[in-house]
Structures are given as C-alpha cells and as structure tokens.
Amino acid sequence: MARLFRESRRDSASSASSNGFLPPAAASPAASALPSPFPELGVALSPADLREAAYEVLVAASRTTGGKPLTYIPQSSSAAAPASPASSTSSASSASLQRSLTSAAASKMKKALGLRSSASSKGVGSPGSGGKAAAPRRPATVGELMRVQMRVSEPADARIRRGLLRIAASQLGRRAESMVLPLEFLQQFKATDFPDPQEYEAWRTRNLKLLEAGLLIHPLVPLNKSDTSAQRLRQIIRGAYDRPLETGKNSESMQVIRSAVMSLAGRSHDGTSDGCHWADGFPLNLHLYQMLVEACFDNDDGTVVDEIDEVIELLKKTWVILGINEMLHNLCFTWALFNHFVMSGQVDIELLSAAENQLAEVAKDAKTTKDPNYCKVLSSTLSSIMGWTEKRLLAYHETFNTSNIESMQGIVSIGVSAARVLVEDISHEYRRRRKEDTDVARSRVETYIRSSLRTAFAQRMEEADSKRSSRNPTPVLSILAKDIGDLAIKEKNLYSPILKTWHPLASGVAVATLHSCYGNELKQFVAGLAELTPDTVQVLKAADKLEKDLVNIAVEDSVDSDDGGKSLIREMPPYEAENAIANLVKVWIKERVDRLKGWVDRNLKQETWNPGANRENFAPSSVEMLRVIGETLDAFFELPIPMHPALLPDLTAGLDRSLQLYVSKAKSGCGTRNSFMPQLPPLTRCEVGSKLLFKKKEKPQNLQVRTSQNGVTNGNDPLGLPQLCVRLNTLQYIRGELENVEKKIKTCLRNVESAQADITDGLDIKFELCQAACQEGIQQICETTAYKVTFYDLGHVLWDTLYVGDIASNRVEVLLRELDPILETISGTVHNKVRNRAITALMKATFDGFLLVLLAGGPLRAFTRQDSQIIEDDFRALRDLYLADGDGLPEELVDKASSQVKNVLPLLRADSESLIERFKRMMVESNRSASKSRLPLPPTTGHWSPNEPNTVLRVLCYRNDETATKFLKKTYNLPKKI
Predict the structure, then answer these.
(1) Which distant-in-sequence residues (6+ apart) come within 8 Å of 137 by Cβ?
(2) Helix, strand or coil for residue 68?
(3) Taking a C-beta distance cutoff of 8 angstroms, is the pair 63, 164 a contact?
C-alpha cells in the first residue's frame, strides 16, 4: 500500500505534454490546470486540434438520421434576426442542437451535484438588466452554447456544418458512427474552401494526424505487423507531411487513403461491426471526450453551466463514436470538476463538493469492472487527485488558515476517497490482506497529521532561532516550547474538528507528534548540559509546562476511545524535565557543599580563636561560614525551579554536614577530659610517725607540674583558657544561629512560586547533625577546659601543695585563690547560655581533683582521723566558691556535683579497724572464692564510693595509722614509698 501511495505522488508530480484543458479567460495565471492524467497520444495534436475534432464529432453525432436534408443555418443570421418560418423548419431537422435555452428551469444534475443555479443572474434581458448594451449576449440554443463553450469560430462551425451537409447529401441515411469524419472532411474540402493556405494546411495536417492517432497509434483493435492497409496508410501520411496532399472527392490520392482507412476502421473485436472505429481507441477517445466535457464549464468563471443537463444529453450522443460509457464519463467528469476547482484558485467550494459527489459514483463503478484500460486511467486520475491533495495535506498548516479553512474538509474528503478507491479497488496488496486490517481513511489522515505537524515544527524551530537576539536573550527551546504550545492549541481548535471525521483521535495524534519532535530536541539539549544555569532552568520549565499541556489535550481527546488514550500516552514518554532539573540542582548543591567544605578546611587552619576578634568573643570564621550558608540558601531559592520543597532536604543535608565538619574541627585538637587526667600513682602505705617532709626527689612520678596561669595565657596558645572559651562561644553561636537559618528557610519556602499555601505546615527543618555536634562539642569543650584548668594549669597546686606534708599548713585556700581569676575569665568570656555549663564542668573537675588528692595523692600525703574535720571544712569552702553567696551556681546543682565527695569524706573520719572490716566484707562479697587471709587487690575503677573496695583500700593507704599500715603490709605487702 505504501508503494501505491508513493507511485501516486510521483505520477502526480510528473509533467505531461498536454492537458487538454484551457483555463477560463478570467482565471489567474497562478491557478493553472493540473497535468492531464490520461496517457500521451504520441501525436502532435494541440488542445485546439483536439477541441475542433471533438466538436466535429459532437455536431455529426447530433444531426438527424431521417430523410430530410440537414440544412445549414449561420449562427450570425440566426442570432441577428427572428427566426423565419423557413429557418424554423430547417431548425427542426437539428432539434437537439437548436433547442431553445430560454427556459430557466432548475438543473436536475446541478441539484444532484449540490451546485446552485445561476441562470437568473445570467439571462439576457432578465428583469433588472435594463437592456444595457454592455451585458454579454447569452447563446439562444444548445448548439450555439456548445460552439461558444468549445471556442469554435463561426466560420469554422459553418464549414463543419457545410461539410456534414455535403456528406449527408452524398450518403443519405448513413449514421455518423459509420463514418470516418477526418476522411470524409478531407474528401469534401479543398484549399479553395479556406481563407488562406496556412489555415488549410493546418486543417489538413490535423485530420491526417487524427487518422494516424486513431487508426495506427491507438486503434480499437491492435494492428498486426503484416497488415498492408496500415503500412500503406502510414506511408501515405508520412508522405503527406513532406509534400502537399491533394484533397477532394475526385483526388486519386484520396481514393487510395479511403481504401486503406476504411479497411482499418472497419475492424472490430468480434469482426461483425458495421461501424467505423477511428476515434474509440484508448486513450484518444478520452482526450477527445475530455474536450467535450470542458464545455460543461463556463469560459468566463469556470463554473458549471446552468444548461448542464442539455449539454450532457448532447455529450452522450458521442459515446457510440468515441467508445465512451457511463463509467468513463463519470471518471472524466470527476476529473474536470476537480481540475476546475483547482483552476478557480481553490475558492469555488461548490466545484470541490461536486467533484466529491461525482467521485462517489466512480467508487461504485470501480467495484464493478476490472477492464485494464479503465483501471489504468482510473489509477492515473485518482493518483493525480490524491497527489495534489496530499501535497497540501501533508503540510496543511502551510495550506490552510482561518481564511480558507472551509475548503479543507472537502480536500481531505476527496483525497481520502481517492486513496480508498486506489487501495481497496486497485491495490493487489490490499486484496491479499484482510480488509478489516486496514482503515485507509484513518491511516491517510494520521499520515497527514504527523507529516504536517513535523513540517510545522521545523518551521517553528527556525522561527524560534531567528527570534533570539541580544534584545531577546530567551533560549531557543523556551521560545520553541511556547510556539509549540500555541501550535497545539491552534491544531486542536482549527484543524482537529475537521480531521476527526476520519480520525477520532486527531488531536491526540497531533500532540503526540509535537511531543516527540520537541522531545528529540530536548534530549539533545539535556545531553549537553553540565551545570545549572538560568537558561537551562528556563528551558526545562518551559518543556515541563509544554508536556503537561500536550498530555492534557491527548487525554481530553481520548476520553471516549476504546483504551482511554493509553496507546497515545505510551507514545509520549515523559520528558522528565523535572528529573533533569533535579539532577542539575543536585549537582549544583554538591558543588556548593564541596566548596563550603573546602572553605571550612582552609579557614579553620588559619583560625586563632582570639577572644579580642569581636565583642561577642566567638570565632570570625563562624560568622563568615554562616554568611556563606545564607548566600547559598538565597542562591538556591532564587533558582527559577518548580521543585524547591522537594530538593531542599538535599541542600540542608549538605549544609548540615558542612556545619558538622566545622564543629568537629573546632573541637578537634582540644583533647578530652581523659587527656588531662593524671595517671594514678602506685599504692603505698604510710610510714607511721614520719612527718612526711617534702623532698624533691620524692615528688610523685607521672604527675607533671606547671606554673600558675592566673587566668591568663599566651595569645598564641590555641588551648589557652580564653581560646577554649572562644571555641565554646563559637559552638553556642552556631547552635543559636541554626534557629535563624531554619526560620529563613521557611520564609523563603513560603515565597517561592512553586510553594503551596501550607507548604511549611508540619515541615521539620532541623540541622540534626550540626545540632548534635554542637551539643556534644560544647559538652566536650566544657569538660576539656575544666580538666585542663584543674589538672594541668592548677596541677602545681593540687599535686605539689594541697595537703602535702603538714595538712594544716597546706589547706585549700591556695586552690581557691588560683580558681578565682579563672572563674572571672570564664564568666567574662563565655556566653551566658553556656556559662553555667562551663563553670559546672570546672566545679566537677575541681571536686574530682580534690577527691583524687585524698585517694591518690601519692606517698607525700598521710591523713589521720583528726584531719577529717579540716578536710571537710576545706571542701565546704570549695563548694561555697561555686555557690558565691547565692550569685553562683544553683545549690541543687552544687549539691549534686559534691555528693560523691560527701559520701567519701565519712571514711576519713572512721577508725582503721572498722575500715579494715568493711573492706574485707566487701572483698568477700565480691570474691566468693577468695579466702579471708588471701584477698585479691581490688581494681581501680575511678568510681569513688564508700561501698567500693578500692576506695576504702585507698583511704587505708593514706591513713597515718599503725593498724592500717600493718594490714596493708600483711595483706598486700605494700611499700612505704615509691
């Protein structure tokens, strides 16, 4: 079938040497006739030659066959004066040609074809004409009308009629179909019957060519190569072209021609015909008959004449001579109607409608015959019609607009009808397949839609490219998306209502085609993207909007279809523009986050944590980092994308990780509380009676000593107390600013165009990683600062002074004096929201240090039961330092932190015997398999408690008591010194 359509388009595009049509005098040169669909004659017969020959056949076929002579009446005299009785009598002998045209009765044929009658507007002397001389004179008879329509001059008409009268006079009663008219005319006229030799020569040559075409080139019955008559006639005609041939009745050469002509013309298929076959061979008969059919159309405006009924009746009289039947007539008339519609500049819709109605008759005829000649000309004619229509319908957006859209329905209809006949009645391929498998009309219309939309898309592509300029920097694909959207709306409103007659899903097919075309361009665009730019987002947003519009049209168009439009939707794979945008935004986010991480690494290496950098005492790098984060958020929400809410978690997660990195690096290098906790010295027992005088060589090992800092440190020390306070403030500042960042995000989210009214309702935007890191970092830095101050900065007080030697002389006042400026530094530097946490951590550290001095202070310390009161008083003084007469930490907090020390202090007051029994009992309970005489050394857990064996053992180790010393010597063999 596809091959058939390709051949039809090729045939319609090929040119012919002659089309047999003369456009109306008023026709525009641009509205030229179509090439003739009939095969070429192979003889140089002009349209004028064929027209005059056809007129001769018409006049001959219309004459009477009775015994009365055929009287010649000049057209000029019959028109100039009223008909005399004599002329009326003569006219009666040619009634068919001379029938009056004064009747204005409506044409039955026009009515059948759907044409309006225009007789009332063309009649001579009709009411309202005023008898103006300028009004054209209408022919008074059918014969005169035919002469005028076929553009035969009055002298030529007179000569034809005179010749027929002569023939009738010499061959009375002989019918026209039994004559060879060119031969008869050659015998009746000589050069003297013409006004000049050139006209005679042209007339003689025409008749000889007619004989050649009808008897030698296109005979009804094919010639045998051995036919002597054909050879003789061919020689005579060729000789006549070279030298003048004498014509007339008495010409010897004419007798020779007559003999050969009559021998050839008398042949028939069955061998019994009594007629002459000179004009009924294919395709000569079609060329001649088409000249007669042209008389059905007004020479001035190309419309069908009102006298069409009478004209057709006359034409039918020629059928017997020309070998025409009803089927060939229908085909020729269909072609003529369509061709005149084309020559009208496609404005005479009535002609198109008439051609469509007549084509319906042709379609019926095509089912009833398989005559090869008929099928050949049928295929050629319909291919020409279809080729012309397809040339316009395959790009109907270029052909039709609001000014001429009314003609589209008829052009589609006649083109589809022609295609259906070609496929269903001529195509062998179609016959081999089941007919229900092929819907010709739907298939052709779908082809028109897809072809036209692809062509229109290509044009819009060029136009979009030309629209982009420095003044209009809009991306080409954005312009194109809008243009294609407009094109789809135009298609839906203007063209689809017409095309739905043959294809119920016309709009759907159109938008699916546009979707595919734009999708191909978009795919190439997306493939070349490397980063997110405003132009990229603009294009992808435009593509997304276009796709939604196209899909909506397709869904609306296919609501009532069998599959609900699923097949169309499957033909429209998603552009996934949103995914493309999302992927590019994710790349953009990754770049920004990676850039921020690099910034964190570079800037924290340069950060000095100087408390004098700003009034708030936090690191300038944190301010800068939060500024960069704010700019990143602003840039994100300024992206013209439709999915900010969907992609926001990716951005916040990346920023959260960057902040977490900053916090981690800010606290890294500070160490932990364990970094500053001293290793406990080995257990020893006291030397009873010794005054434990301080000796340098007996200083405890593994306990480093440092001079007092008095709250001041070197500005270059990143772990100095002020620097640690700045780190602490920085983490608190970041934690506080996170709330502002979260508020900003919600505000921006409400303002973006893609957000819904309740977009932030229930939205939980939390920088959880950073929040947790800040919380952990603050705790870590508080503890690190506290333990560094206690065990490193104040190590000389704890280990070298407090309770060394004479207890009464080395009490806690020295420690309190050292702690006071430290507390002032913390209070004046640390942010008020974390100040108590820092002081609380210092309090716990000093309490731990105080307890560590009592339980692991080394062999330089020894306590008696009487010392317990001094120690308790000292601890009370240490507690009071943090209470600060109600201006310090809450008492409940101080009580909770001091509970461990308070629980251990009663052990210092207890006698050695009870401590030993307590220790043994706890050891037996915890070690059931051990005997009382061989107790294992309890492990050091660091969790000091009166119920913990190691704690009780350590109290005994530092008890300046004979009982305790003997027990330790006996049980564990502990030395008196390290």
Answers:
(1) 79, 124
(2) coil
(3) yes
